[in-house]
Amino acid sequence: LVGLSDPMVRLYELIERVAPADLPVLVEGESGPGKEMVARAIHQQSRRRRKRLVSVNCAAIPENLLESELFGHVRGAFTGADRDRKGLFAVADGGTLFLDEIGDMPMRMQVDLLRALQEQIIRPVGGQRDLKVDVRVVAASSKPLAKLVQTGLFREDLFYRLHVVQLDLPPLRARASDIPLLVDHFLGKIGDQFGSGKRRVTRGALDALAQYAWPGNVRQ
């Protein structure tokens, strides 16, 4: 996370307060401002930092595979399941699971996720036994979950289970004073990558970058 603007300073303070609490966290904001970086910062400042941070984009995995991805499966559970496979909840046991774009999770999977969060228990696809897991969930959405609840696209009970603490990540256009810091950061990374040393941009170029709206945020 790069930035010293007022919105970012407030975000750092909230991360510092919430990280040790071991509660579910919901991170909301537009696409591309660094929600996964927030999850990483929470994990690194928590008591779980010696365990794994595991990330999954719920919108990128087909519905018929998402259950197996999260909870695992046993051999023979479906065509192609030639061996037992751990799900991401089990992989993240003792650590943190980052569920990106949770607003796109299918309704049927939301029921299973709610049980996993409430009971800290999962059942692999095709399995007969429940498995106990100890996982902290940080969820993120570029769509306001409260509005999805109102339109019936997201379960209200799951929303309140995730919405224990909410962090709102500001878009880049709301913190234009951070752009010189981001430019310096990325130029340093590029210089290291290509062994060319850190380059600079002209004042005119920097002014142009600061005035741009950045609809794709930091990713852009």
What would you say this structure looks like, in words?
The protein is elongated, with a radius of gyration of 20 Å. The chain contains nine helices and nine strands. With 220 residues, it is of the alpha/beta class. A five-stranded parallel β-sheet has the order 2-5-8-1-9. The chain has a two-stranded antiparallel sheet with strand order 3-4. Helix content is 40%, strand content 15%. The chain has helices spanning 6-18, 35-44, 63-71, 88-91, 107-119, 145-150, 156-162, 179-194, 203-211; strands spanning 25-28, 53-57, 72-73, 85-86, 96-100, 121-122, 131-132, 136-141, 165-168. β6 and β7 form a beta hairpin.
Q: Kindly state the mean pLDDT as a whole number?
A: 94
Radius of gyration: 20 Å
Q: Tell me the major beta sheet.
A: 5 strands, parallel
Q: Helix count, per DSSP?
A: 9
Number of DSSP strand runs: 9
Q: How far do the termini sit from each other?
A: 15 Å
| Structural class determined from secondary elements | alpha/beta
Share of residues in strands: 5-15%
Order of helices and strands: HEHEHEEHEHEEEHHEHH
Which strand order do you get reading across the main beta sheet?
Answer: 2-5-8-1-9
Low-confidence stretches: none
How much helical structure, as a percent, in the residues? 25-40%
**What would the principal axes of the Cα set say about the shape?**
elongated
